[in-house]
Design brief:
150 residues, mainly alpha, globular
Length: 150
């Protein structure tokens, strides 16, 4: 039931959140991502999207990149943990704080896991503001190593 509550809130917030985002949409297809070298961020992103039957969401592309870089799954508790990781990494946004607040209330049994994920985000160099579209051709392991992403 708690997962359904958060999924519904996400669905309701998606369009307004996209409208508020200042960045431009990438206008890139999964097929184009899969044409990058196999060791690249772009190819890894394309595989993530294909494996999960997702499309790139306009103006929210970096969210899926965060999944790829941090090796975070797509269950509701994992989505919440990724927001804790990003908080540790220095990201601040109303959406992030809302997910963390509601996730902590609805998933108190995961708080130790969330704290560990937050600590992992603190140990990484700040990467949440990067222009990932410009890094799609870069080797994913180089990005992870450079920014100490574990």
């Amino acid at each position: 039931m708690r997962a359904i509550i958060l999924e519904k809130l996400y669905e309701w917030s998606l369009v307004p959140y996209q409208a508020l985002k200042q960045n431009d949409a990438w206008n890139t297809s999964i097929g184009e991502l899969l044409n990058y070298r196999k060791d690249s961020l772009g190819y890894s992103l394309g595989c993530f999207l294909s494996r999960n039957n997702f499309d790139l969401q306009q103006k929210l592309e970096s969210h899926d990149v965060f999944h790829v870089l941090t090796d975070t799954g797509i269950t509701v508790p994992e989505e919440i943990s990724m927001q804790f990781y990003l908080l540790g990494n220095g990201k601040r946004s109303p959406y992030l704080f809302t997910v963390i607040f509601l996730g902590s209330l609805l998933y108190p049994d995961y708080l130790k896991f969330y704290y560990r994920t937050y600590c992992r985000g603190k140990t990484a160099l700040s990467f949440h503001k990067l222009d990932f579209q410009k890094l799609l051709d870069q080797p994913i392991e180089k990005i992870k190593t450079t920014f100490l992403i574990k």
